[in-house]
Description:
The chain is mainly beta. The protein has one domain. Helices cover 6% and strands 39% of the residues. The protein contains one helix and eight strands, in the order H-E-E-E-E-E-E-E-E. It has one helix at residues 13-20, and strands at residues 25-29, 35-36, 51-55, 59-68, 82-89, 94-99, 112-119, 125-131. The strands form two sheets. Strands 6-5-4-7-8 form a five-stranded antiparallel beta sheet. It has a three-stranded antiparallel beta sheet with strand order 2-1-3. A hairpin with a 4-residue loop joins strand 5 and strand 6 (94-99). The longest helix is centred in the N-terminal third of the chain and has 8 residues, at 13-20. The protein is globular and about 45 Å long.
Amino acid sequence: MARIVPGMTELTRPYWEAAREGRLVVQRCVRCRRLWHPPLHRCPRCHATELDWAPVGGRGAVYTFTVVDHPTHVALQDQVPYVVALVELHEGPRVLANVRGCAPEEVRVGMPVQVAFEKVDEVITLPQFVPC
């Protein structure tokens, strides 16, 4: 079974292109300098539409997480159990991703993590997080 991957849109294309290059980026407002994720068409603070993409260091901490024990799709049946976490980056934005590199029962809120990139195919590389 093929791997399920997120779709790419014009709005998310810069995020996925950066990930393919091994870089983690988030959107930034040119006017007020706020950083956020996931991508939006307007700044969530000042509603400006002048936006760019800012590189972030890829380090943060697990803000919250869940362990998925039951596959939600047949393509995921060989991957359970896996951890889906909301990671709060040192720069502030929170990113939803998997935590890899440790047993699911080892993941804790506040656990320090860093980004690692998993190449799925020639188009999609997934930012994942591993303990650091």
